[in-house]
Design a protein that fits this description.
The complex is a heterodimer of chains A (406) and B (283). Chain A has 406 residues and is of the alpha/beta class. In chain A, 41% of the residues lie in helices and 18% in strands. Classes of the chains: A alpha/beta (406), B mainly alpha (283).
Chain lengths: 406, 283
């Protein structure tokens, strides 16, 4: 991370910070937006199998729209976010984006949540030449549209880069693991990462004696747990979504087996952190509500607002993490693009984003790499005292926190 | 080649998972077989009961068995109310599929409005308890579920065969006009059976709350496999439903242990197709 900082043009980074500093400025100093609203259309999976996480994105978006409107809106005009429910179905997402662009005549669009709806929406965006910022496409190589921009710093090849971040972290353990069992959902973004993990682990001499794939929505993990126990590897890598990690760890406990160390790709953060089985497990992240992340401009306020809204929405885990931050970052990028280009024209916004650095809650972000991605910024976190703590790379570890070996 | 321990453990896990399939299939099988109503809202009622168990347990610290004692009678009444609608609008087998699908969707939305779409997990200290027998581990909660499912299936089977009401229900399912000629009031008995189906859904829901992850969309996760179980077990046959559930559960689990876990969903329908092709007399 420090290495790439050196390559950035200072004025762009400073420009981004100035924009974000406005978050902390008193409202009285700013002019309230006025005039015809700028309509931004988008869908989220408010119902269907993706709804559990999409609700987090919805809160992130609402916070940002209010925040933008409490300042200058877009070019002095208030922002109106037209959010529709794509029911977790790509075909519905596709139709709704058509409607937003052709019937509702939105000025700009915001991407939906999750890879499949994003791909569906991207086709429509491309047809109408709209800029699309998306927060959660886990397979960057599928983002082939020139005016689509990622808000979350997966990097262009996370299946190669992220396993190595994990392997570097594993190497710091007192007894670095020599064998790894990989169990993954067949959900595309998880399967994609699992295959990368197997390849990279074997390249670095970590043997993978067992690799299992299960269907998304698998009900019973008893037989899988029995196979994991029998393999008894030094490290368990789980390509899980939602509560699958909890289910796998519970099934293992029923067999009186606790993996030595385990990693979980995209788990529901709260339930895993709060579960007795979740103690000291590892997971992926881009940000946690801790230092150095909380010192980023605007982050404290966003984290507080998120907690307030998530509690009000009755979410069991009301602490901001990488999911909500993804949507926050997406809106920050759109705002920076509009303000930077001083225009609502999609081509001008896209051109500005490609040439500049935007500072989001994820830190300085650029889009000049393959598939419009910048550098990857994945981190490793561990559950410690029922809270997620970043444990790797070292420069992102909060003071007083360290990796606890099991 | 998987070891004997792995195969044995997978078989235990599968049979116990099949107990849940059988328990969920019980009410559906009775409704479809004896009332000629395909009640898709059965799954939604089970999840409503699961969410109520979760709510009572986490908010009011009510033990699941006391929660079940409260929820089951309420569900029985919901079953009666539902049948009143079927009766009032003279709903037939095909229409019941569409109408109860609508009920299920409405319940799913209602559940999501109140409990949100987020995952819910009812953590208990006994949820991961197991008994060790030789080299095998038997999860206690799943074992209790299987025993309850077995008792309900056996009791219902006996009730249908040994009591006047049970015999009358079976006779009415065979030929309602002839049964009526012998004094069977099919309409009243249908209310009883509908209430029982909903009550069974409530019992299944209590176990779902303890064993599974709750999310509104999970209502549909069991649909395919439980339909296969109902058909394999023969419509209106409670013991058949339980045995079919265990057969499917064991087949899925063995497939996961020997081959790829991703093959498991194919197993239930493969078994169903194989049995339909075989066309045994008992089906």
């Amino acid at each position: 991370m420090n290495h790439r900082m050196g390559a950035w043009r200072r004025r762009h980074v400073l420009g981004g910070f100035v924009g974000l500093a406005a978050l902390g400025a008193p409202a009285i100093l700013r002019a309230a937006p006025s005039g015809q609203p700028v309509k931004v259309g988008g869908t989220l999976s408010l119902t269907g199998f993706l709804a559990q996480t999409a609700v987090i994105h919805k809160i992130g978006a609402e916070i940002m729209v209010e925040d933008i409107n409490s300042r200058n809106g877009f070019l002095g005009r208030p922002v109106e976010y037209i959010m529709l429910d794509d029911q977790s179905k790509p075909d519905v997402a596709r139709s709704l984006y058509e409607k937003l662009i052709t019937v509702d005549k939105v000025d700009l669009i915001m991407g939906p949540y999750a890879t499949a709806p994003i791909l569906a929406a991207m086709g429509v965006a491309q047809r109408y030449g709209k800029v699309m910022i998306q927060s959660s496409m886990g397979i960057p190589k599928l983002q082939t549209y020139d005016m689509a921009f990622p808000a979350t710093p997966f990097g262009s090849e996370p299946d190669k880069t992220y396993p190595n971040v994990l392997l570097d972290c594993m190497a710091t353990l007192p007894a670095p693991p020599k064998t790894m069992v990989i169990v993954t959902s067949k959900f595309p973004s998880a399967q994609f990462m699992a295959q990368g993990m197997r390849t990279e682990a074997e390249k670095r001499g970590v043997k993978v004696p067992l690799y299992l794939e299960y269907e998304a929505g698998n009900r019973d993990f008893g037989a899988i747990a029995a196979r994991v126990k029998e393999a008894n590897a030094d490290f368990l890598w789980v390509g899980s979504l939602g509560l699958e990690s909890n289910q796998i760890l519970e099934s293992l406990r029923k067999l009186d087996y606790t993996p030595k160390t385990s990693f979980h790709l995209y788990p529901a953060p709260g339930p895993l952190a709060l579960s007795p089985d979740g103690n000291l497990v590892w997971s992926s992240t881009f940000l946690e509500p801790d230092e150095p992340f909380m010192s980023r401009p605007g982050m404290k306020k966003i984290a507080e607002l998120y907690k307030e809204r998530a509690t009000k929405a009755n979410l069991p885990y009301a602490i901001i993490d990488a999911q909500a931050a993804g949507m926050v970052a997406a809106w920050q990028i759109l705002e920076a693009g509009v303000n930077g280009a001083k225009s609502l024209e999609d081509k001008q916004i896209a051109a500005w984003l490609k040439k500049n650095v935007v500072t989001t809650v994820y830190g300085p972000t650029k889009f000049d790499g393959l598939y419009n991605h910048g550098e990857p910024a994945q981190l490793i976190r561990q559950v410690q005292d029922k809270q997620w703590k970043v444990i790797w790379p070292k420069q992102f570890v909060a003071p007083g926190v360290k990796l606890i070996a099991t | 080649m998987p070891s004997a321990t792995l195969l044995g453990q997978a078989l235990i896990s599968g049979v116990l998972a099949g107990g849940m399939y059988g328990l969920l299939a019980l009410g559906l099988s009775l409704s479809w077989g004896l009332l000629r109503l395909v009640n898709l809202s059965h799954f939604a009622l089970a999840f409503l009961a699961a969410y109520l168990t979760y709510e009572l347990g986490t908010t009011y610290h009510v033990a699941p068995w006391w929660a079940a004692a409260m929820i089951v009678p309420v569900m029985f009444l919901i079953g009666l109310a539902q049948h009143w609608l079927f009766d009032r609008f003279k709903v037939n087998e095909l229409a019941s599929l569409l109408i109860t699908f609508s009920f299920a969707v409405i319940l799913e939305v209602a559940i999501q409005l109140y409990w949100t779409a987020d995952y819910r997990r009812f953590e208990t200290h006994y949820s991961t308890m197991s008994i060790k027998v030789g080299g095998f581990y038997i999860p206690v909660l799943e074992l209790v579920l299987c025993m309850v499912a077995g008792l309900l299936a056996w009791g219902t089977w006996l009730w249908l065969r040994k009591t006047y009401v049970g015999k009358a229900l079976r006779a009415a399912a065979e030929d309602a006009d002839i049964a009526a000629a012998y004094g069977v009031d099919h309409k009243k008995l249908a209310y009883l059976l509908s209430g029982m189906g909903a009550a069974y859904a409530a019992i299944a829901g209590t176990f779902i709350a303890l064993i599974a992850t709750l999310a509104p969309t999970q209502i549909w996760a069991w649909l395919g496999v439980v339909f296969a179980v109902v058909i394999i077990g023969r419509l209106g046959n409670p013991l058949g439903a339980l045995l079919a559930g265990m057969l499917i559960g064991a087949s899925e689990s063995i497939a996961m242990a020997v081959f790829e876990p991703a093959w498991a969903p194919v197993v239930s329908f493969s078994v169903l197709i194989a049995i339909l092709l075989w066309d045994p007399e008992w089906l």
